[in-house]
Design a protein that fits this description.
This protein is an alpha+beta fold. It has one domain (46-174). The protein has helices spanning 2-11, 17-68, 76-79, 96-99, 170-174; strands spanning 104-105, 108-118, 130-139, 149-153, 158-161. A 5-stranded antiparallel β-sheet has the order 1-2-3-4-5. A hairpin with a 4-residue loop joins strand 4 and strand 5.
Length: 179
């Protein structure tokens, strides 16, 4: 009799398998509610950062145009650069991550294409600029890193596309809703 009482005392000193399964099930239910909300908030943050980075690229293109008399920059790399002094080929106007291929930051890929005929290269410029530009930010993976894509053209207005696709041309970008 004493050994049976001792075994019962040992059996009450832990959690039963059912209790552990209930705790694990509760944790899984909470995680299934929290994880989608976390992903949506991260996508919203990536979209806000992409719009801000595109605004920076747009402002840098205008500054480049007025500073070096070379039109709008020929590439994103021309807007970047490592250290002073700033030149026409390395203007040091945007973050080096944006200026360096593959031009990806915060879940988005950035692209910049000169539009129209090239402008004659200004003094000391390695490449001629352009009369206009098309800058875009597209999610690396639509639905995971962002849902909307963004674009900007020469007037400096940022437009967005709910499908997340990259605009094919300046008129296609200008046809999208603006922010």
């Amino acid at each position: 009799m004493k050994s049976t009482a001792r075994n019962r005392a040992h059996g009450t000193q832990g959690f039963s398998l059912i209790e552990l399964l209930i705790v694990v099930a509760i944790i899984l239910i909470i995680a299934s509610i929290a994880i989608p909300n976390f992903l949506r908030s991260r996508m919203a943050a990536n979209e806000a950062a992409a719009a801000a980075n595109l605004r920076t690229i747009t402002s840098a293109a205008v500054i480049y145009n007025t500073s070096w008399s070379n039109g709008f920059p020929p590439t994103l790399a021309a807007l970047g650069g490592a250290a002073p002094p700033a030149t026409c080929d390395f203007a040091i106007l945007i973050d080096s991550i944006l200026a360096t291929a593959p031009h990806q930051k915060t879940g988005y890929t950035y692209d910049y294409v000169g539009q129209g005929p090239p402008v004659p290269a200004g003094g000391g410029c390695g490449a001629p600029g352009f009369n206009a530009y098309l800058a875009s930010a597209t999610p690396i993976k639509v639905g995971m890193t962002g849902q909307r894509s963004f674009c900007s053209t020469t007037p400096g207005v940022i437009h967005y596309d709910l499908t997340g696709l990259k605009p094919a041309s300046t008129p296609a970008c200008n046809a999208l809703p603006s922010m």
